[in-house]
Amino acid sequence: MALPAIIITAGEPAGVGPELCLALAARDWPARLAVLGPATHMQDLAQQLGLPVKVTLTDAPVAHRPGELQVIDVPLAVPAVPGTPDPRNAPAVLGMLRRAAEACLCGDFDAMVTAPVHKAVINEGGFAFSGHTEYLAAITGGDPVMLLAAGSLRVALATTHLPLAQVPQAITRERLHRVLRVLHRDLQTRFAIAAPRILVAGLNPHAGESGHLGREEIEVIAPALEALRREGMHLEGPLPADTLFTPRRLEGADAVLAMYHDQGLPVLKYAGFGRAVNITLGLPIVRTSVDHGTALDIAGTGRADAGSLAAALEAALEIAARSSAAR
Description:
Blueprint: E1 5-9, H1 17-24, E2 32-37, H2 39-49, E3 54-57, E4 62-63, E5 68-73, H3 90-105, E6 111-114, H4 119-124, H5 132-140, E7 145-150, E8 153-157, H6 167-170, H7 173-189, E9 197-201, H8 216-229, E10 234-239, H9 241-244, H10 247-250, E11 255-258, H11 261-272, E12 277-281, E13 287-289, H12 307-326
Parallel strand pairs: 1-2, 1-6, 2-5, 3-5, 6-13, 8-11, 9-10, 9-11
Antiparallel strand pairs: 2-4, 7-8, 7-12, 12-13
Helix pairs in contact: 3-5, 7-8
């Protein structure tokens, strides 16, 4: 059986992404790997940081060899300076994502792994960009759901990058049906969980306190869950978010659905920051990513921890293997 082929995007060239990719090269990965990124910049970084990594140009995935990084070159508009991103390089950053997604769509690669990008810099470069998830959905035609995983804890989001003031209006029965169906299906297909048990958070404190602290639980969330239970899903909720994440409540659960970004992710990142993985469900391709940003303050210093990118690569290999076995 051929080794799985994984394409990794190096992310914001002035951030920690390129050096994290270099750090991956030291390990022995059972895969054919290729990194999309600025080859010259990455070779210069390896020399500056004293990393024993040889950057080799390629145009296709090849079996990984420890100490060597196969790079599909993405030229930059201006040289990258660690810690100082330049909006003129935004087209190159977006180009990496598009090329990687299209390479997965056409079957050249089994999965893509993304290092962090800087949303504000991309927007300053003249591109409307709210995040990897939304951008990849536009390319692939998928129906994305963001899931972060740290060990056995998996947290999915009903809404992602929305201002908090817009969240209540975005929590609709239709959205919850869509997100939970994707979550349920991908827990089955990508994680091999035959009958997923999903805990669903309420939107308001104390899950609305019987309507005294908000009526979204009564009028929207509870009816949506009841309809999906009739389809055979094992759903518990709406539950108060402040007690949902206790060990006793989480015992036996396969995933949690949080209503908004900062309801679920602070807990997840506290539990596993630096080794957590961002997994995009609902796409026709496999995509995993790190749980952190570009860390401009330490870019180019060699202090960046590659643990999350390594975990993202491990997750991509596991999911790709399951997908291949299911075909």
